[in-house]
Amino acid sequence: MHCIFVKTTPISPQSTILSSPIEYLHGVTTFKGDLLKKELEIFTFRDLLELYPFRHVDKTKLDTIAGLSPVNEYAQVAGKLTHLELIGEGKGKRLTAKLQDDTGEMELVWFRGISWIQKALSVGQQYLVFGRLGFFLGKPQIVHPEIEHFTAQKAGGKYYLEPVYPSTEKLKTKGLNGRAIGKLTYALLQLLSEKDLPENLPESIIKKYKFISHFNACGQIHFPATDKHYNHAVRRLKFEELFFAQLRLGLIKSARHRHSKGLIFDKVGELFNSFYKQYLPFDLTNAQKKVLREIRTDAGSGRQMNRLLQGDVGSGKTIVALMMMLIAADNGFQSVIMAPTEILAQQHFNSISALLKEMPVCVKLLTGSSKGKQRAEILKCCEDGSLHILIGTHAVIEDQVVFKNLGFVVIDEQHKFGVAQRARLWKKNIIPPHILVMTATPIPRTLALTAYGDLDYSVIDELPPGRQPINTLHRSEMARPQVMDFVKEEIAKGRQAYIVYPLIEESSKVDYENLMKGYEEVKSFFPEPKYWISMVHGKQKAVQKETNMQRFVNADTQLMVSTTVIEVGVNVPNATVMVIESAEKFGLSQLHQLRGRVGRGAEKSFCILLTGPKISGDARERLKIMVATNDGFKIAEKDLEIRGPGDIGGTKQSGLLNFKLANIVQDRVILEAAREAAEAILATDPELGNDAHLPVKKYLQQQKAKTAWSKIS
Ligand code: ADP
Ligand code: MG
Description:
Elements: E1 4-5, H1 30-40, H2 45-49, E2 55-57, E3 74-87, E4 94-100, E5 105-110, H3 114-120, E6 126-136, E7 139-143, E8 146-149, E9 162-164, H4 169-173, H5 178-191, H6 203-209, H7 214-220, H8 227-259, H9 270-279, H10 286-299, E10 306-311, H11 317-330, E11 334-338, H12 342-355, E12 363-366, H13 372-384, E13 389-392, E14 406-412, H14 419-426, E15 434-439, H15 445-451, E16 456-460, E17 471-476, H16 480-492, E18 496-500, H17 508-525, E19 533-536, H18 542-553, E20 559-562, E21 575-580, H19 588-595, E22 606-611, H20 617-628, H21 632-643, H22 651-654, H23 668-684, H24 694-706, E23 711-712
Helix pairs in contact: 7-8, 8-23, 9-11, 10-11, 20-21
Magnesium ion is lined by residues 317-318, 412, 569.
């Protein structure tokens, strides 16, 4: 197992005031400290400092009672308590008070904590009152106001906006509501000086973006004088967050480049050349050539390749991978291609075997269904080196699969394939094999660079020639008979069609019933023996799935009824129609993936989105985008806007997109600036040895002591 260290010099854990345990803060008892740890994961002073308010309330001004109107959401008033009375019985029991200033009178009401409040307040005294303003019978009123004795110093109001913090029900009942947390933060800030929160950005960046200092930003985000101060603080801290994230990824990448040893594929030999000259059935697109060059350069460089290859559905990633596998074989190395499902593995096996049919290359398929003697035979070929290319599912990375000399691993459509699984592959050879992760999930560039910043990145941004754009239509399910007539016309021309049903994970039983109902309905439109239908769904045995799929591939059936199992990769160029039932239930990326199953041949293809009568605004938006564009990257950008970065491409698990303040969708401008800044620094000073970058280096080390970032394996 390889461990990559960002820095090789050991770091002594820095003990600063900020790393003090939270109980050391005045006002935090052991009991409260435990609660803060459990409920908000606040262990140290720094954790508290980094618990940011989600909004502020403005108590900087005093309102006059006569001036209050329903447009004020909150009110802060100083006045004399003129009346205090308990009214009602049982559940209707409440305490009411009247507060008077020079301009008028308002009402205060309490339903809870009545006896305690009644004792604490006395008529005739001056009070300062704050709360959410309401009106009752035209009179201003505050229910459960914050109330404190009024003194002359308070006449000007607070000199800062008061922060409101996230809290939990449990904390609230134990006296640690959002306001109480604010008091702790305030107390903490009094203890801190500029030396505890030193500058962490180089002078040049601060100048360029006119940032306020790190120290000021840390204070002002909590207790800003005005909204403008708050915005300055947030902008600065978001930049920091994104900048340091990019910097870390960049450091990991360059450390890997420097330290990792890679297998060397330095020759382009007989296998590659004869395939290229005799068997490649088409010309490569320029984008495919470019990517092939990038991969070849990596694989010849002497360092291990970890590359993400992105290309829209149908852009021809597989052939690029195959040609690299031939180069691997030319250099005496074995290759593996791993697909997410058996159907896809089978399909890769079929198409790759067909392409290599005339060549002396040994290709085998290994999946969960490979058993007994057949399996033993495959394993033997891997071990004795007679096999060149192994195609399969997760089964190929099991420990029993031992290779003589594994050099190249292709992971198809598996962006969720995490660091741990990659590490498993690394163990399969003394020097780890090169890894190519292929995905058709179009990930916007900004997101890719943030989420996969430690991988190298290639894009096939061009489709093979002759592809016609898919015509996408949105129809109400009332129009199903007409849609089916249209499908019949296409079938009459010798084409095939997919009809897809949604898969709603919570209830596979309901999904299954819907699919069966759909199947019966499709059958009534397309009766045997004129029409034959294949059906594929998740509950079938692999063999059955495969048989049904194969019948469709061979054009023995004209229709394929399925759930989303055909989502990725399946390739039947003769299929020209895709009907998606309940299309409103699919996400954008998924719709795009599904649509990519058609339009793979030279014929004009269609995608028809059927929906029920009631669809949400979001769903309507998705359908509109699908109808408007075929461009996977545009769709991904829109998807990101609508859904937020939640779990695009399985990035959630990676934790790389979980920022405290920044949001990579809304803060894209800051993200770009931060990335540019980080890249510029690493380009000239990859070790951060430059004096100007000392603040950056120190901050990273301090962060490193705090988190487990130091070791990325
Ligand atoms: P994906 O990138 O979605 O995995 P595939 O590799 O399955 O795409 O390729 C889609 C189809 O396009 C396949 O039938 C493949 O043979 C074909 N293809 C790939 N590259 C080219 C090319 N340069 N010219 C013509 N057809 C191509
Ligand atoms: Mg593919």
